[in-house]
Each structure stands twice: as structure tokens, then as C-alpha cells.
Predict the structure.
Amino acid sequence: MLKIGIDVGGTFTDLVAVDEAGRSTLAKVASTPEDPSVGVMAGLDRLADLLGMPRTELLGQTERIVHGTTVATNALLEHKGAKVGLLTTEGHRDVIEMREGLKDDRYNLRMPPPVQLVPRALRLGVKERMRADGRVEIPLDRGSLDAAIAELRRAKVEAVAVCYLHAYRDPRHERETAAVLAGALPDVYVSLSSDVFPQIKEFDRVSTTVVNAYVGPALSRYLHRLEQRLKEAGYRGPTLIIQSHGGVAPIAEAGRLAAGGVLSGPAGGVAGSRYSATLLGSDNLIPFDMGGTSTDICLIVDGEPALVSGRGVGGHRLALNSLDIVSLGAGGGSIGRVDTGGILHVGPESAGAMPGPACYGRGGTLPTVTDANLVLGYLDPAHFLGGASRLDAVAAGAALDRLAAELNVDRVAAAEGVHRVVNTNMAEGIRLVSVRRGVDPRKFALLSFGGAAGLHVTDVARQLDLTRVVVPRVAAVLSAWGMLATDLRFEVSRTHIGDTGRLDGAEIKRLFAEMEAEGLARLRGSFDGPARVQRGVEMRYGEQIFEITVPLDGIDWAVDDPLPEIVQLFHNRHESLYTYALREQDAVLVNARAAVIGVLPGVPQEPVRGAAADAAPVSERRIWLRGWTNVPVFDFDALAPGQAIAGPAIVESAMTTVLLTPSDRATVTPHGWLDIAV
């Protein structure tokens, strides 16, 4: 039986099929932004061809498909989501616009206000009021609600976000509203704050619920269309969607909590990186995922990535738990341009999948990173994607010539400038997730993946004084491969504010028991295998206005009162983050979280390769390294375990190319990966 991972990116759709022995078959096809499911089916056709079987037979032998998609991401970033109406407590419709009273760049007097996903005319107040302690101050007024719904019907909204004041304490008014909406607007997507984010902080709750309503219809339509296409093609197994927190969810859950999939694509790369850390026996990695449109960077510390909440995506607050990923507008399709001061910039604008870089021959004329790499000789125009596509070197040269004219330099200098500028941008991105957070990146290895990363990663490492780079054999599709190493995950949260000195330990135990029961019930709706629970809390000192997340792994829940141990963990965590702890002060518990995890069978480990003679170069290529030089070209898939390759050299496979400069030395691991000493 096979497991298939699918990662739809902005430029390419990556697929990997893994058999029971751990052997991986890789495929990469062009993404189809107008309907990503078309690219997915084309990728499955390509996988079937590579495995020598019809697509129906391939899907008949597939026990699980795990999918990462950028549909929700693109709908939010490109402002192509649904027409949304907001029902909120009377007098509070401007919370989403007032935000927290601060601009993102508070000293920028010319900063325009953020674009609102719900125009003010569609933000409607409903007469009702719940108090912070859960008592009803004003019952839900049916006349007020009916009038608001009538206004939304006239506006022909596609989705409705419902966010009443203090609904995290008691959701009855939101539940009643949902029942009325189901009868009055049966075809409209409804998003309740008590379902999406039942926690304190009004702006976080409103913004997250609105984002969920904004991207939900597009994601739900896409997932339904994909499910139908797969069923018609003969697939009968489950299709799981990777979420921003790194776990996976069934299609129905992914459509319900659409905001949880806004970072779906990058999350697969983090999952693959975590699994790679296990294979490498290296707990500290910096995953470096450079694709066609963007570069995603995070940290793996002690074998685990960090989770954060309250991040911004496209200028909109998303308070759901997500992996701590920094995304940069730096990819193979990033466009080089010259500003009015004559300074060269690369990205964040991208040529995307259509028309793509000039060398793709699809009508693109702007100079991109891929065009520059082709001009510098790093790419073989005849064997792009294993020969499935041929690059147009003449078009790439013409695009770089236009850039060179603006810079008053020659073509090669312009191409080298693009290459160096994008490398500098990516090195700065790594500093964002490491140095600026008090982490020394020199203690980490750089894990290189994504189709474009291999040509840039060693130079990026040198800029940061990193001495080790690892390139997996599946680097070009590691996000798709890593998705197969994830588990089902259902997160439940509750607000439970109070000084820990006054809280009841037995009540805290009951709270976690209730959350775990809810999460387990949701899990059992689609999975009956083994399950485990991760617990955590968000706490602060009384005078603070922010909370920190405290994992509760290792807590003895059999004791009558777990609060003293929870408080001690909070002090320790605060000290590790900020170098001090106020142990004489009472800590405040704000939110409790429980993640119920359904443990799926893992992806089989890649087989260790047997002894073989060192592979000889398959050809020679003329490349630019501060001057033209001929270097040997090695076939990545033919390299023998233990083989050493000294730079300068090119190592290429059907889907990725790795550049070794004169100061680099690569050793082939037992799994056929490149371990590069920089």
C-alpha cells in the first residue's frame, strides 16, 4: 500500500508516494491557481506514470492522502475571499477596526489603515449582552436579530461571522443565532466565535472569526471539489488536510475551521523537518524552504518546533495556534527590479506559476531569481524537472539584459546581483527567527529543501557563520513528504482567568477533563486508533499585558492539586525566555489548552543504501563563480553512501540542483542525503 503527500505551492504542486519499504517516488507539476485540484490530478497522473501503473490502480493502492493547500492563504493575502457580514453585540461593531488602539508601525504617520475584510455597512449590531461571568445581562432580541439578518440577505453575503461579547463564557446566544441563520440563509457559511476561538481578548476573537468566515467558503468549495475528483478517480481512503499547528484534520473539520489552514503549506515543511531531525540524530535544525514564490524559515529546538498564537497574516490577526514560521517573499519566481535611487531589489513580488519566470516560456518577461540562476549556468536548460520542461535561456538572458541596462552593468553582473541580494534577504530572515530571539544560529544545522534552495543555501549559511547544511534526497518535495509524518490533531481551549493562589486545583482538573472529552469526541468522529493528549496553559504576572505558553508535559495529574507544579513551570518558563522570574508574585492563569492527537502510522524510514562504488560525474558545466569555470556535475540519485564531493561542483536530480562552492565539502549519508561542511 502507498501513502501520498501533496503540497500545492504558488508555482509548483509537489507529490510524493511512499511504499511500505520507505521508498519514495517524487513528482512535480505546475500549479493551476484558477483551480488547484486540476494540478493535483495532473500530479497524480505523473506519479502513476513514474510507478508504471494507471491512475485508478495508483489510487486503489493508496491508503492515505495528506494534503497541504494555499487556497485559504491566497484568499486572505490577495483579498479574494467571501463577502462577509458580521453580527456582533450592539455597540461593538467597530472592534475589528479599532483593533487594540495601535498601528502595526506606530510611529509611521503616513501608514494607511488596514483594509477591513468586513465593510462597516455589513457590521451589524444585535441587541443582546452576556456579562464576563457568564450571566445574561440582555437576552437575545429576536426582532433585532431578524432585522440584521434581513439586511445581510439584501446584501447577498456569502458568509456570516457571529461574535457576541463574552460568548467564550456562554455561547447560548451565538448558538441561537446560528439556528436562525440556518433557516433564514441556508446556503451561507456561518462562523461562530465560540466554535472558532472561545477565548478572552475581543479583538483577537473577532478578527479570527472574521478571517474564518472570509476564507471558509473558498476552502470548503475547493476541498469538496477535490474530494469529488478523487472519488471519481477511484480513491476510497481518507483525505487529510495539514493545519497551521502542524497536525492534520479530515476535510469536514478543515472546512469548518478554515482559518486553521492559512499556514497549511508551510506546516508540511516543518513536519518534514521534525522527522528529518529524528533521522539525522540532530535536535537543532533551521528548516530553510525555498520554493517558487516564497521562503519559509523556522526553528527546530530539541527536536520540536515552536507554536505561537496571535500572529498576523496579511495584516489580519489570527489568534489560533500555529507553527512559528517566518515567510519571506523570496523564491525562484521573485522578481528583480531597480528603484528610483538605482538600488536593486529582489521580491517580494513574484512571477508565480503563470506566467512564471521568463525562462519558462509562458509569456513572462520580468527577470527572476530562476532566470538569474540560468544565466549564471547553475541550471541545465535541457533537464529542468528531469527533462519534462525545457528552459528558454534566450528569454532569460533578454530579461536580465533589461535589468542590466537599468543598473548600467552587463548581463552576468545583473544576474549575480539578483543571486546575492536574494541570499542576503534570506539570511536576514534566518536572523529574524534566531538572533533577534536570543538564539545563536551557529549551534544549528541548516536543513535545505524546496526546489530552489540548493542553489542558495551554502552562501546563506556562510553569511550566518553556519558550518553545516543538510540536503535531503527528497528536498524538492520535503513538505509533501513530511505531511505523511504527521498525526490528527484537535485543539480545544478555554478561558479561565484567575490568580493561581485563589483557584481551585480540582476545578482545573475538571476543566482539562472536559476539554479532553470534547477533543476526543471530535477525534472519534473520524478516527478510532490510539490517541494521546498534550496540555498547556497561557499565564502571566498580574501587571503584564501578555501571556506566555507553558507546556504541561510531565505534570502529575493524579495529585489533588496540580496548581503548585503548574506555577513552578510558569516561573521556569518565564525565566528561560526573559532571564528572570518573580517567584514571590502570584501568577495569573488566563487560558487552558488541550490538544487531542490521533496517532497515525508513520511514514516508513527511507531504506539505508548498500555499499557501492563512488559515482563519477555525469557531465561538466560552465558556471559563474566570480569568474567562469568548468565544474563536474553529479547525479544526486546515483551517489554512493560515504562518497565525498569537494566543491566547486553541481549535484542535481530531476527536481533540484545543489551548488557546492570551492569551500564546500559534501558527504553522502546512508540514506543518500547530502551533509555539507561549509
